[in-house]
Amino acid sequence: MTTKQIDYCIELAHTESFSRGAENMFVSQPTFSYQIKLLEEEVGFQIFVRNGKGASLTPAGQQFVTYLSNMRQEMKRAIEQGQNFSAKYQDNISISLMVRQAIYFLPEAIKEFETNDPGVLITPLFQYENGIDSFLKNESDIVFALEEQTKQLAGTNVHQLFQSHVYLVCDRNDPLAEKNLITDADLYGRTLMVGGGSPALLRSIQQKLIASGKIEYFNSPNHDTTHINIATGKGICLSPGFLNDHSGQYAWIPYDCKDTFSCVLCSHKADQRKSVQSFIATLQKIYSDVVAFPL
């Protein structure tokens, strides 16, 4: 299967016309039709049902073209990334994090690092659920994690980054948004969003509040859904400070709790590149120099 055949197949699925598909791909209709025929022979099933000069997808063809379209987009991105890399860089460091705001100062760190090491490209990878698994498969060089997640990781160096506190998140028009510190008593009678892959520390705080019998709770599948539920008035939530995007859309008020989340970076012990250690040190320095920034 060639990229040309993939493109022809996707185009025919869109136009449902051999003549228009050939015209759009700047080839003759016989050439266009022949490549589609070769592709069907290779995959071993009929992709299109012919009707005169037109064609429509078979059920198997619909599934196949969906996969091809996604694969073609991934291929396009890979080519573009390769072109960018080959033109300017000699090395690449990939860093996996659950969401962009988890390492709020990542853009600043990349800018500072690439000023000193212009030949090294920093590539962020956003993996909300499987970042550590991807890291263990060597699909990333560095991963942002909570220290509690790293206890059983073999072949890994753990680098301290910052301590993140617990915050109450609510609508900016909520009366709680006027407070400087939230206590358990402030939450009594309210509905708390829980679940959604909460870290162990946060789950224990949620369970303590639920066990008091003085609050209602509502299961929310993930962080983004929780924020939508807050915006629609379904409730409030407790969240680690590192998930704050600082957009001002919601109020983030410190919660009266001494426990914190230990946020770390993990690297592979086998990766001895000085550039990796230098980039981690750049991030650590930025966070150590932070003054009066809510984490």
Per-chain topology:
Blueprint: H1 3-15, H2 18-24, H3 29-43, E1 48-51, E2 54-57, H4 59-88, E3 91-97, H5 106-116, E4 120-126, H6 131-136, E5 142-146, E6 156-164, E7 166-171, H7 184-187, E8 191-194, H8 200-211, E9 216-219, H9 223-231, E10 236-240, E11 250-254, E12 261-268, H10 274-288
Parallel strand pairs: 3-4, 3-5, 8-9, 8-10
Antiparallel strand pairs: 1-2, 5-12, 6-12, 7-10, 7-11
Helix pairs in contact: 1-2, 1-3, 1-4, 2-3, 5-10
- Cα(first) to Cα(last) distance is 50 Å
Shape: globular
Largest sheet: 5 strands, mixed
Overall CATH architecture of the largest domain: 3-Layer(aba) Sandwich
Overall number of domains? 3
Strand order of the largest sheet: 4-3-5-12-6
Overall pLDDT score: 91
User: Helices and strands, in N-to-C order?
Assistant: HHHEEHEHEHEEEHEHEHEEEH
CATH topology of the largest domain: D-Maltodextrin-Binding Protein, domain 2
What is the CATH domain class of the largest domain? Alpha Beta
Which segments are poorly predicted (pLDDT under 50) over 5 or more consecutive residues?
none
The strand count comes to 12
Query: Helix/strand/pairing class, anyone?
Result: alpha/beta
